[in-house]
Design brief:
Helices cover 35% and strands 24% of the residues. With 237 residues, it is an alpha/beta fold. It has one domain: 3-Layer(aba) Sandwich (Rossmann fold), CATH 3.40.50.1820. It has an eight-stranded mixed β-sheet with strand order 1-2-4-3-5-6-7-8, with helices on both faces. Helix 3 (88-103) packs across helix 4 (120-130). It starts with a strand and ends with a helix.
């Protein structure tokens, strides 16, 4: 398995992505971007990239903060995330910079790129789709649904899969109605899978802050990953 960090830039800011792929597979391969949760480009995201590489994809962990920054703990992660979270124009530029970087890699099939994201990363990949980028499909795991204010959305041409906890207090079911309406009115091919017992961050083994509504669920993590693999097989065929 080939693994390396890759520098790329957005408005002069050095971003450090992490690339993983199986170099024994000859020729260009479909690619998947991984947009991390609010901690940044951590080992969890890199582990997901390695899982995707084993499935035959070129996997690329996105750096949304610059310099490959990683935070430890909720408060430090929020401090790192909020400047990008609150500047959706900047967020859109950075996720698109990652897409362009992956598209230009010699081992990637240029017209077969998807993106997945966790929590904050779910919002990032949804905004990638909202920017009209030619990404084949995006998957949000317990992501943030709110559409950016003051930024016109382009025509969404990608398929969308939302994997969400019904008991997520940070993004409750009522907010799902908004994105359902948004995607339906945009004519998008979309799916929403609710997991009835799941809270926020259900894929993250380190999520134990029940008082914040963050709780790991191994079974739901497994179920949602399985659904995602079928979706990727479809959109990247």
């Amino acid at each position: 398995m080939h693994k390396q960090d890759i520098d790329y830039y957005e408005s002069g800011v050095r971003l450090v992505g992490h690339l993983v792929y199986d170099k024994t597979i000859i020729g260009p391969k479909p690619a998947v971007l991984i947009a991390p949760a609010f901690e940044g480009r951590n080992q969890f995201a890199i582990g997901k990239a390695e899982e995707l590489a084993k499935l035959g994809y070129v996997a690329f962990v996105v750096d949304m903060y610059g310099e490959g920054q990683i935070a430890q703990g909720v408060e430090a992660s929020l401090k790192l995330m909020m400047p990008v979270f609150n500047d959706r124009a900047l967020l859109r530029k950075r996720i698109n910079a990652a897409f362009t970087t992956v598209k230009n890699l010699e081992m990637v099939e240029k017209n077969k790129i998807a993106a997945i994201g966790f929590c904050f990363g779910g919002m990032c990949v949804l905004d990638l789709a909202r920017s009209g980028t030619a990404v084949k499909g995006v998957v949000s795991f317990h992501g943030v649904f709110a559409s950016p204010a003051g930024i016109p959305n382009e025509k969404i041409i990608s398929k969308v899969l939302l994997l969400h906890g019904y008991k997520d207090p940070q993004v409750p079911p009522e907010q799902a109605l908004q994105i359902e309406k948004e995607l339906d009115e945009a004519g998008v091919d979309w799916q929403l899978h609710f997991y009835g017992t799941a809270m926020h961050s259900f894929t993250d083994p380190n999520a134990v802050e029940i008082e914040r509504g963050r709780k790991y669920d191994a079974l739901i993590a497994k179920r949602s990953w399985y659904v995602m693999t079928g979706f990727l097989q479809e959109v990247l065929a």
